[in-house]
Each structure stands twice: as structure tokens, then as C-alpha cells.
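User: Structure please.
Assistant: Input sequence and predicted structure:
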Amino acid sequence: MAQSVSIGVGTWAWGNQFLWGYRPELHDAALEATFNRAVALGLRFFDTADSYGTGRFTGRSEQLLGGFLQALPPQQRDQLCVATKLAPFPWRLGRRGYDRAFQSSRQRLGGRVDRVQLHWSTARYAPWQEWPLLAGPADGVGAGEAESLGVSNMGPLRLREVQRRLAERGVRLDSLQVQVSLLAPEAVTGGELGACCQELGVDLIAYSPLALGLLCDRAGGGAGSPKGPRGLLFRRLRPRIEPLLALMRNIAAEHGAQVSEVALNWCRAHGAMPIPGLRTPEQAEAAVAALAWQLDEQERLALDRQALALPVRMPANPFLSD
């Protein structure tokens, strides 16, 4: 299974001051170089969202990605899949609730949206909002405004219901995004969600596959940890995941690879396409390097056991439905 699953690019950090300390004068040139390197190395799936970017930089991720896309030759640009997610904010209601948001996203992306996605499920707090809101993008796919449709943060029960209702309208559901990593393993190690996606023909996309950098094994829990909220997470989790990191180092050494490649290939071994956040050309190169090899079954099982035995997990998405 692993060899058939690719790797995409996440752009959550592009414009995010809160977690990633984004500053345009410091980071935009590096982000453009990262994008160009990723494209040159063959990465084809780029994921963003209309809510990415904090404060005055809301929408910045789409804006940056759109600008980088426009600088590509058309033939190269046409080889990419550009996906964005629309947030189901409380004021976005009904079948036309996403109309303005979709057009704004498309404008920021330079007129290009290949896949439109529901950013999270409202099943836990406003189940009546979700289906009418999703029906609008489904109309858009049917009308050719976007090529494909995806959802995020749904469990198997909700996924089946949404897929069934879309199929009744003749609209294909192409993908589901959920948090999947060795520090959030239950979505795939339990088997139900992965099996559901496979049965329904829905691609499983793993966001945060490197657990905000914890699974890159670069910064420790002390002076070397990141600043701000990420630093708090590192100091809380990093000392308690050492058994997992030790195993990952051993596997990486066997393959002549980086520890981050092990984390990405673990997702791929479970049939999920990881979309790591890339901010430097070197990170793009490490992501592509993971495509050159795969975990064997014993390595995957050992990682499964170690991940499930850990006493800590990444914070769960509060909107994840059953």
C-alpha cells in the first residue's frame, strides 16, 4: 500500500504568527523557494485554507500560494492539485453560505481551486448547519467551479453519511483529512477509519504528520525547544516520547534516512497521504526523500506498538465527529 501513496504539502504555517512566528519580511522569500523546490522535486498536492494566517494575515496562506502559482509556467502549474478548506463559521449558513468565501479564496489563489473542502465537521455542535453548507460546494463541483470535493475532521459514521448523501446527488467525495501521526495514531491503528475510506474510495489525508515538529527529533525539551505555544507542547511531550524517537532513529539509520522520513512513511504505510508543513527548501527535500523508500511490515508494527504504548498524545481536534 505504501508505495502507491504520495506526499503533499501543508501550508498552515504560511502567515501564522501565533504558532510559527510568521513575519513577511523574514519568511516570504524562503516560502517561495520552498514552494519552487517542492514543485521541482515532484510534489503535486498543495493544501491551504481560508482561515490560515493569524490576525492581520488572515488568508495569507492562500495569497502566498496563489502568488507562487502565478509565477509558474502554465504547463507546470496545470500539473498541480490546489486544495483549500472553507471554515464553517457560525455566520456561514445554508446552501449559499460558502459562496462569498469560495470566490474570495479563488481570487487569493489566482483563480485556481482544484479541490474545495469542508474544514471541519459541525456534527458535535450544529449538525443542522453541515449538510446545507456542504451542498453549496457540491453544486460548485457539479458546475465545474472546482474539480473535486473533500471533507475534514470526520469519523467513519459521519463520513459514511456524507458520502451517501453526496452519492445520491451524483457527486463524488474525493478525500478526508484528519490528524494522523505517531502521536495521534488511533485514526489508522484502529482500522475502522482507514477501512471506511478504502471501502468508499475516499483518499485519506494526514495533517500534522510530524506533530508540529516533535517527530523531526531536532529540538529537545530545554533551551533548544521552540518559543511560544509550540515550546510549551515540546516541554510537556518531548521527554515522554523518547522510546518512540529511539525506535524511529534506529529505523532511520537502517534506511539512511532522517527521522522525519520515518514519520511520513508510517502514515503512508497506513494508506494516508501525509501533508507536512514545509517552510524551507531543505524540508521539501526531506519530504521527497521519504518517497524513495518504505517501511517493511515489521517496522510498521513496531512503530504501531510503541506509539500506542506512549502515555501522551497530541491534542485532539475538538470538532472531530464520530
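Strands lie at 9-10, 45-49, 81-86, 115-118, 148-152, 175-179, 203-207, 272-274.
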